[in-house]
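Hi everyone,

Forwarding the result from last night's run.
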Amino acid sequence: MISSHEAAVHRLVVSADIRGSGRLDQHAKLLSRRAMYEVFEAAFDAIGVPIGQVHVEDRGDGVLAALGPAVPPAALVGVWLEEVHQGLREHNRGRLEPLRLRIAMHSGPVSDDGRGLVGRTVDLTCRLCDSEPAREVLAADETIGLVFVVSDVLYRTVVAEGGRFVEPECYAPYPVHFKETDETAWFHVPRRTRPPLPERGRSRQDGDGDADGDGDGDGRAADRPTGARRSGERRSGARRTGARSDGARSVAPTPAKYSITVHGSNQIVDGAEVHGNITGVSLTRDEDGDAERGGGDG
């Protein structure tokens, strides 16, 4: 076990989350949690690490775990992962509500302040587990019971070296952009040559929805400012085209430019949506219909 108030020590961190837990009733939640713990305990036993030697924090619909530096990471990305995969298959056989998991791993300095694990290593592991690409892999194929995500450094230093039940050629890189995270992570689905990741640029990251409908997206939609647009959409002022009745394509005029001064905090000026005090805005048109910039008090 990790002792309280210790200095940061290099450890392997595991974050796991049950897909769709927000839709389960109380009885189903209890069954899912029990099954998850049973699968993990059996997997740790398979690599010779009793669950009592693992620091485990319950997260309601998931767990956060850390292993001591004496445990070889290759055992986790190999035998341990295979045991989790087989345990899920056994548990889910014939069930209408199968247990499906997102699991992420990363290694680095970790501290324990007596209340739990602390450090950037923990932050990144949890965000990889909760990332939109990981959610979308499970959403893309209902037959997938497990998506596994590792950080770039863990892939390069551990997974890429191979080993028993380690399949580096079956991992695929994909960018994860969320909060302070800007990481190329590696995704894997056991027994698949490639995980069904979304097309580049089409993942609903940065709070744009909950891909798997968990209802446990950690308030990500609230992280986006009001009026923010999805990546790839054109900002206001872009020229737009459309079809005319005579078959020709019409071009909408570019909106007129104008002067604007914004005072106060929390301002968003996008598509005529403004919060806060505004001075110095006026827009007039001449007789020919052309926009002219008018004066104001700014």
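Residues 138 and 164 are 25 Å apart (CA to CA).

Cheers,
N.
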